Known about the structure:
This is DNA-binding response regulator. The chain is of the alpha/beta class.
Amino acid sequence: MRILVVEDEARAGDYLKQGLTEAGFVVDVARDGHTGLHLAAEQAYDLVVLDVMLPGLDGWTVLRRLRQTGVGRQVPVLFLSARDALADRVHGLELGADDYLVKPFAFAELLARVRTLLRRGPPREDDVLTLDDLRLNVPARTATRAGQRLTLSAREFNLLHLLMRRQGEVLSRSEIASHVWDMNFDSDTNVVDVAIRRLRLRINDPVPGRLIHAVRGMGYVCELRP
Length: 226
């Protein structure tokens, strides 16, 4: 699962990223409100951990604007703040936060709250994703086409999973690289294009016919075309 931490204090942000990463999450960190809002609105996160006192836009404003966007209406938000007044906690919850944790805090408590929010977050995706005769069993991490098992590496499975759960959406190379490789896309590298070519070969081996298509100048889309 992917978590966005919006925290302007470098040490605190690095501490949260290290701890959550060690707990098995993919973590992005934003150092100011504007960057945090942009990332949260543009990318699919499972949870946002949001400081209240931020440069640029404060956490209250970030949450308010986030709840006005399509993606941001559903993502769980956990406020972090040194402001422990009851009025502040109530204000955060009334704005649409799902939880409010006062600084300083024990990391074990933060992790417990994160896991609780993720369990009760937006409806989970289907365990089995399908497109024509391509079938992806997410919990079992298996894929078949026309009933025949596909041999996929862990990275190829993650790439196919991303494409299939976002069927019909054109995904840019930078977004694919961010989700599958947890890296910023470098225009001088063709890692995404090479991986897509290999994945197409795996999928088309038992049954000819492309289900992953390039969209010139934009990226790739997974969909059934006549």
